[in-house]
Amino acid sequence: MDPNMKTEDERLEITHYRQTIEKLSQQLIQARQREEQALTQFSSLNNELITLQRQLSKTNVELVRSKAEAERANEAKSMFLATMSHEIRTPMNGILGMAELLADTLQTEEQKQSIAIIEESASLLLTIINDILDLSKIEAGHMQPEPETFEVRKLLNHSLRLLEPNASRKRNKLRGTVDESVGQFLTGDAGRIRQILINLAGNAIKFTDGGEVHIRIRLLQSSATFQTLRFEVTDTGVGIPEEHVNRVFEPFYQAHTQREDAQKSTGLGLSICKRLVEWMEGRIDVTSKVGTGSSFWFELQLAIPSEAEYRQEAAAALQTTGSGIGPAFTDEERSQPLLLVEDNAINRQVALLQLQKLGFVHIDTASNGEEALEARSRKDYSLVLMDSQMPVMDGLQATQLIREWENARRHPRSAIVALTASAMQSDRLRCLEAGMDDFLTKPIQLSKLQSVIRRWLPAGPPEPVSEHVLIPEVIQELNGLDEPGSPGVLAMLLGMYQEQTPSKLNQLEEKMRAGDLTAVQYIAHDLKSTSLSLGIDQFSKLIESIENQAKNGTVHLSGTIFKELWQAYDKACRELKALL
Fold it and tell me: Is the pTM above the cut of 0.85?
């Protein structure tokens, strides 16, 4: 048999192998095609991803640029508001200052009522200026509370006096009532509360003709430390359509478009009211019916002052006559040399008259910071009243140079108080950082001028220290931080406070006896800050008086000061422990 001749089985096997090889080749080709398709799809997706990444990068760059532009625009807006506030407050200072001084020279009741209306109207205009700043502060989160102890009924009466002329022109009966259960004195931001009341009642008068507008203040809840009040403004006016009621607090929204020609407004008033109420942690709402009238109300929790604060406010209320200033300065105090630095001639004259009204006779003046620096280098002044914005050299730069001059010569430190028309908190901080001790915001009221002079005049009597040991609101806030199952925040902080404070008190005594005023000021400030964070009042006030003395360049070492400090510290710790 020919070896080259293949058997049938071999041919079949070879055929099978060929078919298998062809099949595998086909599968390899298909796999390769699928791989190429996948690679193509991956490449396409990768290109899309790269494109998206580029777009995202571009978007991020645009967002960063937009954010920077928005921040610059916001900063420009803040600068504009601060500048406008300063420019408007300058003439307002002259109006209010001269009206206040003129009030004491008038004889007839008619004259006194006329000047009172001028003062109240100017104050209201100042409030409108502040409203513009309020919007910016609220949006930026820079709104600062200004709590004070005030008479609720007096606040209502002042509001009614401002509203009465407009109510009479609209032939409306305006009345106000306060429930007997509402306390005489409460603590809160009285300026904001009056601002809201006047805005709500002003709107009620605007949309009521020949009807009635009633402001009522009533008690909702009371405890040993606070009262929750509801302030209601009810009218018998045109009312608000149902579809508009829920939108009246929106900015620029006006429900009464049909009265647009007769009643011009920006539509910002109610929006500001809502923001202010919510900022004070209250709530505001309205009910209304067309043809029947509206009732706007807001609720606020106000603190009840301590017994010592109550007595102080009651005494002040009884003493307030004429210009409303407190007890006069002594002959020794009035003989202290003062320096008044103010570039505006009208404001300088007003401040000079106010100082003379308070009895001061040795007053030098300067019209810019350069003149102030020269005057300070020639003479020691007990107090310098320094305008913050002036030509040639502003008050901030002048203060820095005065502090450098005093430090270089180890000279007694003059107290410097800024006179500023800027209401922004950042401007006030810059004054303190420049070396100023305090600030007065224009327009300057005589009573506030007297208070700040008494605070910083070296020969002046010390301010009365509150007998209130603890601040209830701070304690309540600390207790509100407790978490279930965790150690109490107040107990933990008190333990840390008791560990650190005795050694700091010993250091304070050592530095006071050594006359190291810089160290005394630093230690006192640290003690005051930590004490206030625990709601310790009386001890903080004692420490603050030492800090202020050190700032003024002298510390009075009485025989009882350290005994009083330790007693106040021990008493505060005992009362805090009793609350645990």
Answer: no
